Amino acid sequence: MHTLQTGSVESNGVSSSSSNDANDGGKYNENDPIKKNKYVNWRVGYINPEAFYSKEDQSEEKANKNRNNKQYSEKIQKAQRRNNTRTMLRKYITETMSHQRKMEKKLKTIKRNTKKKYEKKKMQPKMQLELNKIPGFNKIPKFEDYLNLNKMWLSYIIELLNIDKYLSTDGKMAKDGEIDFKNLKFQNLLAKLSSADFNGCLLEVLKSNNKSSINLTGIVLYEFKSHFLMAVPQRFKRFDNLEGESGEEMDLENDFNYTNRELVGGLRLVEKNGSTFRFYVPLNKDENNEFSVLSLGLDNEDVSDREETSQEGATEGAVHYHQSRECLEFVLIGSRLNLRSSDRTNKKFKNHAIDDLVV
Amino acid sequence: MGKATKHTLDVQWICTKPPGSVSLKDHYIRTNYLYQASTLMALSASSDSPDSNSLNDLLSRSYVHNMNWVVKKALIKLSPTIKRTVCKKCNRRLISGKNCSVEVTNTSNLKTPVNDILTVSCICQKFKKNYPIGKNLNYKIFAHNDNLLPVK
Ligand SMILES: [Zn+2]
């Protein structure tokens, strides 16, 4: 009996204090059903769920209430059930792709207007836009927001490939003396990549059937069955030759040297089938103890620089070690990855029925 | 003598060696990465203008969706501490103050603290879970029990 009484006294005291706190905050409605019927000790991060639904959804619900037609309500229920994460992502991608095309048209008109002004003065057109101040550009996802994801992915892939021993800090190798990279079994590394996750990887497209996606670099945001969804930086020139038509070096601060698509950046879909990819894993760390891959991936690489250590894994891909840059280069064949990322857990790269090889 | 026996028992727990190599290590690393990536995306989703369709939110959900499939295919198991931070209906990574609301309620007439119930509810309004925390405050999950380690 004693225990029961003490319990009731304590609970009452707590409840009164909590209600005072809620009134001071003034956040919550008085008609809140939870507060009326039950006593609430404390709340952490209470969120009004109605704020998370857009106006269209609310209007749909009202229409559903007005019509007591059974078939209509069943239809809406089925549609809501179909709102998976996957279908929502697809919807989002199609919307942003069309939005990007609109932005490209906007840039086209801006360029045309400025060109007319320069033609009157008889000068070569020059312009540097502040893209983020143009209305509508904030909707487009940016490459820079996903750099943290890429850093996280690098620590993941180093743990997966088990190359912690070869990591260097402050320009010195972790082990004393030179490391024999030829002892590293490259075949094993490639076999591990077959069950790796590529969300967050900074990929470069080397070959592709689609010409507009050759030499694209971007961070992979999601891996579909036959496509990579990538976030591509704004103002990124795809091709190596930075020479204009007259043979002079291209001025990269002039926006007229970019196409409209390169200026906008944003999301891209790259097909896996018939394309080869490349990515770098650094064995080097910054002053802040973080990996510096951005410079590696975006620079144009000299082919003569690399040491060709392995030719064995040519059917699956290729691994190279760059001694001057202290990084590993991986080349993957897209058609080997032509599966859903969750289905690749227990499978290995196929070695039969090969259409394309890495040379 | 009673003290001595206790002491020897403690020594036995310490002496057990952790396993040298973990089987299916690759899949464990992958699930760990996907979980971390989903938290990063959920935290960086915009809280000021909460669109249900913002890209970061969708990405975090799809990473969790992938994680669940990897676990199913590789025949490994997640610990319940991770399972409880994920919505089972919409695959959202639950973070209090951002995605979900955490409350302690008591429906009993006498308001005894034994009947305290912790409810975690997601914003998708389809998922709600009750934990009767008042019954045993010192409750431990089965996997967190120290006596589970094998002797020697
Ligand atoms: Zn949910």
How would you describe this protein?
Chain B: This is Rpr2-domain-containing protein. Chain B: InterPro entries: Rpr2/Snm1/Rpp21. Chain B: GO terms for molecular function: metal ion binding. Chain B: Belongs to the eukaryotic/archaeal RNase P protein component 4 family. The complex is a heterodimer of chains A (359) and B (152). Chain A is 34% helix and 15% strand. Chain A has helices at residues 2-25, 33-37, 55-66, 70-81, 85-121, 147-161, 186-193, 260-264, 294-298, and strands spanning 39-44, 168-169, 172-173, 202-207, 217-223, 227-232, 266-271, 276-282, 317-322, 327-333. In chain A, a hairpin with a 2-residue loop joins strand 2 and strand 3. Chain B is of the alpha+beta class and 152 residues long. Chain B has one domain (23-137). Helices cover 38% and strands 11% of the residues of chain B. In chain B, strands 1-2-3 form a three-stranded antiparallel beta sheet, with no helix packed on it. The two termini of chain B are 23 Å apart. Mean pLDDT of chain B is 81; it is low at 1-12. The interface between A and B is large, with 53 and 49 residues. Strand 1 of chain A pairs antiparallel with strand 1 of chain B, so a sheet runs across the interface. The structure holds zinc ion (ZN).
Ends apart, CA distance between termini of chain A? 84 Å
Overall structural class of chain A, as computed from helix and strand content, comes to alpha+beta
Main β sheet profile of chain B: 3 strands, antiparallel
Based on secondary structure, the structural category of chain B is alpha+beta
Work out the radius of gyration of chain B: 20 Å
> Average pLDDT value of chain B?
81
Strand content of chain A: 15-25%
Largest sheet of chain A: 7 strands, antiparallel
**Separation of termini of chain B?**
23 Å
- The portion of residues assigned to helices of chain B is 25-40%
Q: What are the low-pLDDT stretches of chain B, counting only 5+ consecutive residues below 50?
A: 1-12
How is the largest sheet of chain B built, in terms of strand order?
1-2-3
Q: What's the total number of strands of chain A?
A: 10
Largest interface: A-B, 53 and 49 residues
Count every beta strand of chain B, where a strand is a DSSP E run of 2 or more residues: 3
Strand order of the largest sheet of chain A: 7-6-5-4-8-10-9
Tally of helical runs of chain B? 4
